[in-house]
Design a protein that fits this description.
single chain; mainly beta; Methylamine Dehydrogenase, Chain H; five-stranded antiparallel sheet; four-stranded antiparallel sheet; disordered N terminus
């Protein structure tokens, strides 16, 4: 057999590396170029464009969108910094999406000029926003979402631990709504969405270095799904809805699954093994049948109680369009007590995409921080931020504080950092849902009695966020 030309051998080897199910590492030689910085914290503004009598299906300042990107911030005790990502842009009137990373230094109370991890180059859609994780050695991992089957996702790893100066691109993959969970001594269990037959749920696992990945495995395919997930002591939990006939405007039902062995086995909250992928709506993972009640389900957050039992935060609605036709829009909590799912109502809201976060704290306090109050653009996405407290494991709730008041723009998508530090407890953006506007980024402390705004313009390398609410 004659020898193949060297060029053909190289082409063949490359084809093997990028075969389906195998992701080749990119830029394996670390880049030492200076980071591209933006001189201020400028969130992306977006309008989906699906308008009806009471405005857009969702729009406004969506730098911390979506609820299905998680986590968006991680507190690192070793560095005494909260690292965070968001969808940014260069200036108010240029809807140009940049996947941004930065940190808040708890020692100095300052932030640096944020760094561009990935320029989406012509995309203005915050579905392409990033999420972030930190591995056991302190390296930052940024998962930049793709969209559909046309725009790929990207995985980046910081060159140095606890450092935002330089990132290496590790992989390019098909994924949307990235939810990466790092498990020490194991690697990533990565939950995400692919637009195969609707928005279907998948998972993939990495090696201990995060540099090679398994084939994608389908978790659920019942017309489509949106999920929220979390991780504790190597156990990953996920809650999700389903889309009848692939129609996202009919999203309904509430499901739950968990794995304690890196995706090898999936079970219900009661520990019953479930074969994946789920393909029919009536199955053992079903928590509550909202479809039979004609209710829509919007996923918000998920956590663990003191015994490690799952707690799911979600909103139910009467209609997918904004306005009073969707009322009542009810914030709900589903709590696995150890033997059954207990469902409790919390409060009501003005928009389906009012998104907040759930905090279950060591002293037994259950806390929600979110835009539950009407904002200046009443029928638009978001509103005024409030704190809700439960002292009886979610059975009863009391609004204890208004975090924002008399705002000129709606606030929305309050995100809970992983390992949240009490001084950087919730992170969000504002914006006018009715017209293009500047979008500022904010954070609050645990009690919600102080609010800081990140600087929109920065002349120096570091700046101290401005206190704009609470005690001065």
């Amino acid at each position: 057999m004659p020898l193949l030309p060297k060029s053909l051998i190289l082409v063949y080897l490359f084809a093997l590396l990028v075969a389906p199910g195998v992701v080749a590492a990119q830029e394996t030689t670390p880049s030492r170029s200076e980071p591209r910085r933006i001189e201020g914290y400028r969130g992306i503004w977006f309008d989906l464009g699906q308008r009806s009598e009471f405005g857009s299906k969702y729009s406004g300042g969506l730098g911390t969108y979506t609820a299905k990107h998680h986590p968006l911030a991680v507190y690192a005790p070793a560095a005494e910094k909260t690292f965070f990502v968001y969808g940014g842009t260069t200036q108010k009137d240029e809807r140009h999406l940049l996947a941004m990373v930065s940190y808040y230094d708890h020692r100095t109370n300052q932030v640096p000029q944020p760094v561009v991890v990935h320029d989406k180059d012509g995309v203005d859609d915050p579905h392409d926003n990033p999420s972030i994780q930190i591995d056991e050695k302190g390296h930052l991992w940024v998962f930049v979402s793709g969209r559909g089957r046309k725009r790929p996702g990207f995985i980046y790893r910081s060159q140095k631990p606890y450092d935002i100066e330089s990132f290496q691109r590790v992989a390019e993959r098909e994924f949307t709504y990235p939810q990466p969970w790092w498990i020490d001594d194991t690697g990533f269990l990565f939950l995400f969405t692919k637009y195969t037959h609707g928005r279907e749920l998948y998972w993939s696992v990495s090696n201990a270095e995060g540099e090679s990945w398994s084939e994608d495995q389908k978790l659920a395919g019942m017309g489509g799904h949106y999920q929220v997930s979390n991780q504790q002591n190597g156990r990953v939990i996920t809650a999700f809805n389903m889309h009848p006939g692939g129609n996202v405007d009919l999203r309904t039902n509430l499901y739950f699954l968990q794995t304690a062995d890196n995706g090898q086995t999936w079970t219900t909250a009661a520990g019953e093994k479930v074969e994946t992928p789920l393909t029919v709506p009536q199955n053992r993972a079903l928590v509550h049948d909202y479809r039979s009640e004609g209710r829509l389900v919007y996923m918000k957050d998920i956590g663990f109680d003191a015994d490690g039992n799952p707690v799911v935060l979600y909103l139910t609605s009467s209609h997918h369009q904004p306005g009073p036709g969707g009322d009542p829009r009810t914030w709900n909590l589903a709590h696995w007590t150890g033997s059954e799912w207990a469902i409790h109502e919390i409060t009501h809201s003005t928009h389906n995409y009012d998104m907040g976060s759930l905090y279950i704290e060591e002293d037994g306090t259950w806390r929600i921080i979110g835009p539950t109050q009407p904002g200046p653009q009443q029928h638009g996405t978001g509103g005024e931020i409030a704190v809700w407290i439960s002292e009886d494991q979610g059975k009863n709730w009391e609004k204890t504080r208004s975090v924002t008041q008399n705002s000129t723009q709606n606030h929305g998508y309050v995100r809970r950092p992983k390992n949240a530090h009490e001084d950087f407890y919730g992170f969000w953006a504002d914006g006018n849902p009715d017209e293009i506007s500047k979008s500022h980024l904010y954070f609050t402390n645990q009690s919600g009695d102080q609010v800081w705004r990140l600087p929109y313009d920065m002349e120096e390398a570091f700046a101290t966020p401005e206190m704009v609410g609470g005690e001065r």
